[in-house]
Design brief:
Elements (H helix, E strand, L loop, with lengths): L1 H10 L4 H16 L2 H14 L4 H12 L11 H9 L1
Helix pairs in contact: 3-4
Length: about 80
């Protein structure tokens, strides 16, 4: 990780402080499981005022773009991930 940080500092026009924030965010993003992502996004989208039918469609689409290989979840499976 140190080598990546040093390389990015050489090639990017960014402060060390900002780069450290970016790297921390990236590591958090990469460490998130499909289940954690579903729960987090559900909470975020509810705060935006969306209802579950809209949320589930959006989450299904977003899962296709994530780095982990998430199986195609049904609406029922998404509900179970969120509500247990």
């Amino acid at each position: 990780m140190r080598r990546i940080r040093e390389h990015l500092l050489r090639i990017a026009d960014v402060s060390e402080r900002d780069l450290d924030k970016i790297l921390a965010e990236l590591l958090t993003y990469l460490d998130e499981s499909a289940e954690q992502f579903v729960r987090r996004r559900h909470t975020e989208l509810r705060r935006e005022g969306l209802r579950n039918p809209q949320i589930f469609v959006r989450i299904e689409e977003e899962l296709k773009e994530r780095r982990f290989r998430a199986p195609p979840y049904t609406e029922r499976q998404l509900r179970r991930l969120i509500y247990g």
